[in-house]
Write a structure and sequence with these properties.
- Two copies of one chain form a homodimer.
- Chain A is of the alpha+beta class.
- The first copy, chain A, folds into three domains: about 100 residues, Cytochrome b5-like heme/steroid binding domain (Flavocytochrome B2, Chain A, domain 1, Roll), CATH 3.10.120.10; about 210 residues, Sulfite Oxidase, Chain A, domain 2; about 120 residues, Immunoglobulin-like (Sandwich).
- Helices cover about 15% and strands about 25% of the residues of chain A.
- Chain A has a five-stranded mixed beta sheet with strand order 1-5-3-2-4. A five-stranded mixed beta sheet of chain A has the order 12-11-21-15-16.
- The longest helix of chain A is centred in the first third of the chain and has 10 residues.
C-alpha cells in the first residue's frame, strides 16, 4: 500500500542553491522552525557596499576559502558579504556546527537550519561584517563564482523501492516488503534524516565520552568499542515519532506540520555493539552508584543532531542501550549511522542518534530543539501560537501502535472471497504485544489476529510483532480496522481527532483501511 | 457521586448459614466460579445413612470437634455426614485451606469457595465418608446443633462513608472524600476482599521465605522485617482490576461479570517497610546474579489468596517492591493486610497480597485462579464459553486511567455559571501522568486540566495525580469528559464497546458524566 510512489533514485544536483530549493528544504523549514513560516526570507541589503568599496575591503574568493573550519579566524560569506565569525563561535547557540560554513557561503546551511532566517539573526551576523567579495569573483554581482560543495553529494545510493518523501535530506518509508518480514533488511529500513549523511572515515573516527565530573574526556576508536567490551545483540524496532502522521491528518481532517508519513516510518533490525553502560564504566563513571546530580545522557551526532535520554535507561543493563556498530550482522551503513549509532530500544527513534561521536552526562536534559521542541505531544486544542513548549515532556517511551500493511486474496483458500490481512503491532518501553484485534465490519465486531512467533533478542520485547488474519472478504464499502494491546493492557485510541496535535506526532489511533481502496492498489 | 449508598455498619449475624446466604456469597460465586452458575446446588443424599446406622458409625459433635486443623486426622462435616479428609489434603487443589473447616461443617466455606459446588467435588468427598453425626446432635435430623464460628465475626468495624458493594466479604469503594485528597486516609481506602479478614496475632506472625533452591526456608517476625532491614517509604496508588466496571457495563450496554465498581475502587497511600529484594538477599538469594530458572515471586496470604509477580520487578531496587508494615504512618489495619502486605507499586492491586505470610521463588507463575483466570483481559468478542484462559497474560502493569470525582459550582468565581471539575488520573508501571484533557462539549473540544503538584515518594511515579479544571457550566444535556496521557504518551480509548471483556477488567475508556445528573446528586 505504501510503496506506490515508484522508483526514486539518487539525484546529484550540481548547483547547490538549486539543490536546496526543492521540497526537502521546504520540509526542513516547516519541521525545524515553523515559527519562521510567516517571515519572508530577507533580501540582501548592500547599504554598506559603497562604503566598503571606498575603503577597499574586498576579498578574493581564494583568500576567503583559506579561512575555513581549521583556520585561526574562520570567515563565512552571505551573498556578497564577508564575515569574520571567530568571536561569535563561542556564543553560537548551535555550537561549532557554524564552522561547517567557514571559508564558504552560509546560505545552503541556512536553507537547512532555517531557524536563522530571522531579522535578529541577520543583525547579529552584521556585527561581524569585515568586507565584501571582490566583484570580479561574483556572478551577477551577487553570488560567489565557482562550485560550492554540495553537502548531499556524499549521500549513498539507495534502494529504489524505498518510498521517498523527500530526497534532500532523505526521508523515506520502508516499502511493504520491509514491513512484512520480522527483520527489515538494511536496504529497506526506513530513512529519516535532518541533514545530509556525514562522511566519516573509520580510521579517524573517535567517540568522546564526558562523564560530567570535570575529569578528562575519554576517547574510543571503533575498534575499541568492538573489542574492549562484551558485544550484545538485540532485535529492536525504531519508529519515527511522526509515523502514521498522514493517517492522523486524514482521520482528523486537520493537517499537522511535518512530513506526511504513512505506516512505513518504522522498521525492525538486529543491532550489535557494547552496552553504553559498560563504556561509561570504562570511562570512569560509577554506574552502580551514580552521583545523583547527573540525570541525563546526551548524544551528539556528526550531523549536528543531538538529544538526550534519562540516565536510568542507560545504567540499567536490562534496558539494553547499545552503541550499535552492526546492523543485521554487518557494519552499519551510512544511512543508519556508520560507524556508530546510539540504539535506545523502546524509545522513540529520535533518541537513537546516528553517527554519534560524543556522549556527555548532564544534570539537565539536552537543550537541542529535538529535545525541547520537535518531539513533544500536546493537546488537540493547543497550537503553535499559544504553546508553552515546556508544558510537555519530550517523547521517550512510546504508546501502543499497530498498522495494516497488506490485504490480499488468500491463495491458500479455495473460497474466492477469503482474504489475508497482515500488519505490525508495537509498543514502546519493551512492552510486548499481547493481543491484536481485527474488525472487518467498521469496528462493530472484532476477532483476534494470529501473532507470529518471532524470536525477540534482548531483555525485553524491543521488536514489533507481525500478525496475520485470515477472514472472508467483506463488502467493498467496509473498513478493515486493527487495534493492538500491549502487556500493560494499553489499547489504542479509537479515533484521531482527540489525539491530534499540531506536531503530528504519536499517531496511534486505530488503523482503518477501506477495503475497496486496497484491493484496487494491491495486486499481489 | 459515589457515596450515595448511605451508612453501612458491621452486622454480626449469629446464624452462620443465614449470614452467608446473602448477596456477598452470590457475588463470590460469580467472581470466582462463574462456570458453576448454571449448576443447581445439590441436595444432600443420605442413601448410605441406613447402612451406616446399622454398622453404628455415628459420631458425637464433641468427638468431631477434636478432629480439628491441628489433629492427626482432620474431619469435616457436610450435612449430617462425617468425612476423614486426612488423605485428601495433599491432593486438594486449594492446598491446606481445607483445614479451616476441620472439626466443623464445610458448607459455610463452600458458600465462599463456590467452586466446590459441583458433582465431581461431591464424588471426591464421598470417598472419605466415615460415618454420620449422631442424630441426637442434629437439628431437624440434618444440621449439627450448636453455634458454628462465623468466619466474618472478626471483620473490623468500618467507616460508615465507605461505599459498600458487598458486606461479606467486604467490597467497598472509597467515598468521594477519599478520592479527592492525594493521600486517602486509611479508613477511607477502598476495600476489596475475597474472604473474611484473617485475625493474626502480632506475636505469632511469621513470614516464611522459600528461595527456591531447596535450602531451608527462613522465617521472619514482624519485628525482624521492621528492624533488620532499611525501611523505605513510597506513595503508591492501588487500583482494583475491576475499577470502573460499572462504567464499562453502561458504556458498552453489555454486563460483564463481577461487582459493579464505579470509579472508587482505587486509593492512594503512603507505604513503609523493607524492600522485598533486601529480605530475599538476607534469606540467601543472590539478588545481583539470580539463577535464571526462577522467574516468579509468589505471595501467599493468610486468607488463602495467592498470586505472583515477575522476579525482575522484585529484584530491581528502583521498582520499590515492599513488604509494607505501615500505611499512612501507622501499623497496617486488618482491612489492609495487618501485619504485613506485599506492596507491588505500578501493578494491579491484585498483586499486592494482604496478610502475606509466605513468599516463594518459582520457575513458573502462580497457578492460583487469581493468576490464571480472574485477572486477565480478553477481546470484546471472547466469551467465558469459548475462552482459552492461557491466551492472555495475567494483568500486572496497567493502562492509563482517569476519572471525574466531583463537579461542583465554583465558589471562588462570581459568575454563577462557573464550575469546578475534579478527578484523578493514574497509570501503571510508574508512568507519570503528563496531561489531562477535559471536554465539556461531549468531546468536540478539549482543554487541559491543572495537575496538582503533589509529592510522589519512590523511584517512579507510583501515585495517581489529582487534577482540577475550572470552566463555565455547559448546557444540561452536555457530557463532561476526561482523558489522560501518561509519560509513554499512552492515551485512553474513546469508548467502552471495543475494550469490553467478559471479566469486566481494565475499564479505562474516557470517563463521561452527564452534567444534569451530577448537579442533581452533588449538592456541595
Amino acid at each position: 500500500m505504501e510503496n506506490s510512489h515508484g522508483q526514486q533514485t539518487k539525484k546529484l544536483v550540481p548547483g547547490l542553491i538549486a539543490a536546496l530549493a526543492g521540497s526537502a528544504a521546504v520540509f526542513t523549514w516547516i519541521e525545524n522552525n515553523p515559527d519562521s513560516l510567516s517571515e519572508a526570507p530577507p533580501k540582501l541589503k548592500n547599504t554598506q557596499h559603497d562604503t566598503l568599496k571606498a575603503t577597499g575591503k574586498f576579498f578574493k574568493l581564494e583568500e576567503i576559502r583559506q579561512h575555513g573550519p581549521d583556520s585561526d579566524r574562520p570567515w563565512i560569506m552571505r551573498g556578497n558579504k564577508v564575515y569574520d565569525i571567530t568571536d561569535w563561535i563561542e556564543s553560537h547557540p548551535g555550537g561549532k556546527v557554524i564552522l561547517r560554513a567557514a571559508g564558504s557561503a552560509v546560505e545552503p546551511y541556512w536553507d537547512i537550519f532555517t531557524i536563522h532566517k530571522k531579522t535578529d539573526v541577520y543583525q547579529i551576523l552584521e556585527q561581524y561584517l569585515i568586507g565584501h567579495v571582490d566583484p570580479d569573483d561574483l556572478v551577477d554581482g551577487q553570488v560567489p563564482k565557482g562550485s560550492i560543495e554540495d553537502p548531499f553529494s556524499g549521500d549513498p545510493i539507495r534502494d529504489s523501492s524505498l518510498v521517498v518523501l523527500t530526497d534532500r535530506p532523505c526521508n523515506a518509508e520502508s516499502p511493504m516488503s520491509g514491513l512484512t518480514s520480522f527483520i527489515t533488511s538494511t536496504a529497506l529500513f526506513y530513512v529519516r534524516h535532518h541533514f545530509w549523511v556525514p562522511q566519516i572515515a573509520k580510521e579517524s573516527y573517535k567517540m568522546t565520552i564526558d562523564i560530567g565530573d570535570g575529569s578528562d574526556e575519554k576517547t574510543y576508536t571503533l575498534r575499541d568499542l568492538q573489542t574492549k567490551f562484551p558485544q550484545h545483540t538485540i532485535t529492536a524496532t525504531l519508529q519515527c515519532s511522526g509515523n502514521r502522521r498522514a493517517h492522523m491528518n486524514e482521520g482528523s481532517g486537520r493537517d499537522a506540520s511535518g512530513l506526511k508519513w504513512g505506516a512505513g516510518a518504522i522498521s525492525n533490525a538486529e543491532w550489535r555493539g557494547p552496552l553504553l553502560r559498560d563504556v561509561l564504566a570504562d570511562a570512569g563513571f560509577d554506574v552502580d552508584s551514580p552521583p545523583g546530580d547527573l540525570q541525563h545522557v546526551e548524544f551528539y551526532g556528526e550531523d549536528t543532531y543531538s538529544t538526550s535520554v534519562p540516565i536510568d535507561k542507560v545504567l540499567d543493563p536490562r534496558q539494553d542501550v547499545l552503541l550499535a556498530c552492526e546492523m543485521n550482522g554487518e557494519t552499519l551503513t551510512g544511512d543508519h549511522g556508520y560507524p556508530v549509532r546510539a540504539l535506545v530500544p523502546g524509545n522513540t527513534a529520535a533518541r537513537s542518534v546516528k553517527w554519534v561521536n560524543r556522549i556527555s552526562l548532564l544534570e539537565d536534559e539536552s537543550q537541542s530543539q529535538w529535545q525541547q521542541r520537535d518531539y513533544k505531544g500536546f493537546g488537540p486544542n493547543e497550537t503553535r501560537d499559544t504553546i508553552d513548549w515546556d508544558s510537555a515532556p519530550c517523547i521517550q517511551d512510546t504508546p501502543v501502535q499497530s498498522a495494516i500493511t497488506t490485504i490480499r486474496p488468500d491463495q491458500n483458500n479455495d473460497r474466492s472471497d477469503s482474504m489475508v490481512v497482515e500488519g505490525y503491532a508495537f509498543s514502546g518501553g519493551g512492552r510486548k504485544i499481547v493481543r491484536v484485534d481485527v474488525s472487518i465490519d467498521n469496528g462493530k465486531t472484532w476477532t483476534q489476529a494470529k501473532i507470529e512467533p518471532h524470536k525477540h533478542l534482548g531483555h525485553k520485547t524491543w521488536s514489533w510483532s507481525l500478525w496475520t488474519h485470515r477472514c472472508r472478504r467483506p463488502p467493498a464499502d467496509s473498513c478493515v480496522i486493527v487495534k493492538a494491546v500491549d502487556e500493560a493492557y494499553n489499547s489504542q485510541p479509537d479515533s484521531f481527532g482527540p489525539i491530534w496535535n499540531f506536531r503530528g506526532v504519536l499517531a496511534n489511533a486505530w488503523h482503518r483501511v477501506r477495503i475497496d481502496k486496497l484491493f484496487q492498489s494491491d495486486t499481489d
